[in-house]
Amino acid sequence: MLDERFREGEGAGQEGTRGGTTALGHPRGDLLLLLIGFPVVGLALGLALPRLARWASGSPVLPWRDTVEFVGGLDALWQTGLVMAAGLAAGAVLAFMALAEDLTLELTDTEVRIKRGDEPRTFERTDVSAVFIDGKELVLLDADSGELVRGGHAPRAAALAGAFRAHGYPWRDGDPYASLFHRWIPGTPDLPAEVHALLAARKAALKRDAGQDARDLTGMARGLGYVVRDEGKDQYWRALVTRA
Q1: Class of domain 3-25+103-166
Q2: Given CB 3.0 to 4.6 Å as the disulfide criterion, which of 64, 159, 181, 214 pairs with 155?
Q3: pTM for this predicted structure
């Protein structure tokens, strides 16, 4: 099959070819920024950290003073090297974590394969009723307006739009059901008690940065007939809309 790649500097504005496979991954510039930039920043922070700690230790009001003074005392060459190595490693870990959270896609005329980390999923084109970008997230809706997929996307928005349109998917400029969402207010009579409980648990999961738990709770709300999304720190909900 033909493999059309939408990458920065490699046809990012072109359209895919009907009948082939379009692979959508991280643009080259983003890969360089993540895989090189993050470790370099970590290395630089590791170099600067003991000096910053020595400067901060002069403050009369300083939390964790013992820890700050300990870091400030790491002035031997081998100690500085260890701190820089730790910063480099931390930057590399953050880079790979960021890569794992973004969606990568493969499109054909009949299906879309989406992968986030080690979580691949495949959907038939006929099951997709709308595709759009909501903020920084790519969203695919099913026939009942429920969300098949929502997540941060690696490719540029223009590359996504061109690829989905080229393969015949219903790309939209925005959420066709945006006007139906309501901000979640605990206890509102518009929602059943079990949905309130799910949204309360989801809010707690988001507060502790438990992304997978939040996604699982979103799926449970979908099973009860509701779509959930976030705007800032607020949760918004709407009922499913079944097409006639």
Answers
A1: mainly beta
A2: 159
A3: 0.66
